[in-house]
Amino acid sequence: MGDGLGGFRKSIAAVCPELGLETVELFRAGQNNELILVNGELIFRFPKFAEGVAGLRREDAILGAVRPRVPLATPDYVYRNLDDEVGRAFVGYRKLPGSPLWPDVFAGIGDEETIDRLAADIAAFLQALHAIPPDTVNIPQEPPDSPAALLGILGRVEQVVFPRLTAEARAWTTDQFEAFVGDDGKLAYDNVLRHGDFGSSNTLYSAEERRVVGMIDFGHAGIGDPAIDFAGLYVCFGEAFLKRCARVYPLMDQCWERVRFYASCAFVLEDALFCVENGTDEADKVVAEVNRIGAGLGEV
Question: Is the torsion defined by CA of 184, 259, 300, 32 positive or negative?
């Protein structure tokens, strides 16, 4: 939004006149949202794109179903502006304890006991989340991770991203998707309510308690493949950590082919699609990474 913090302040004041705005500061800028800290204790999340604004009501419904059923803290939206445009639409909640479990923070945790505790915390959360009956959540029930949806993503990638890819990267993309979607055995799973954007930035860690204390940002949550969440863990924390999590949630050990497809192919292509479609500053970087992978030079 063009006028920065002043604009966010104005948007919050217009909807929440009872809230005295003593301090308004940028808490964190992410790819999809601006997080604004108000009075040192409230987080207001402003989506950067129309797609995120449209999802606020859906996310609110999901959190209503999730919050009482999971073992970690999740946002409780006490302020809402769900029917407005980018820059004015928001949700607000009391700041949760902990800080994101960034990869460098995770890498600095040296003792096995703490790492096992983090794995148990995360696995117990995902197990509880995935156990919530999908038909009890008041959102559209069409699985977003179906073969048709994956082929739809491929079609958009071909239209939007292919013009910026090398011939090798285009061939690699097509081969990866068609091999995965064409194998019915790989797509045999029970749909669950999944987080959809699981990883370091949305996992809140308490350095004092040396454990995971909360999960945030359910903007990509929906009904679909549990391996989407496992793949997010794989990307952020590695295979060894995912195997520790599987000791608590054994389903993780039954999904390796899907985990590797999402982690090595689908995620990077969806990221490239998002960045190119929205003209973000990262677009050139993520397209270059797809070209590297397609040439056999990057992570696969």
Answer: positive
Q: How far apart are CA 279 and CA 251, in angstroms?
A: 38
Mean pLDDT of 111-118: 96
Helix (H) or strand (E) holding 269: helix 267-278
List, as own/partner pairs, every contact residues 57-61 make where C-beta atoms lie below 8 angstroms and the sequence separation is at least 24, other chains included.
Answer: 57/82, 57/83, 58/139, 58/140, 58/222, 59/91, 59/218, 59/219, 59/221, 60/91, 61/137, 61/138, 61/139
Distance of CA 59 to the CA centre of its chain: 12
100-294 classified as CATH 3.40.605.10 = no
| Cα three-residue angle 23-24-28, rounded to 5 degrees | 130
- For domain 4-94, which architecture applies? 2-Layer Sandwich (3.30)
- Read off the pLDDT of residues 172-216 as tens digits, 9 standing for 90 and up: 999 999 999 887 777 889 999 999 999 999 999 999 999 999 999
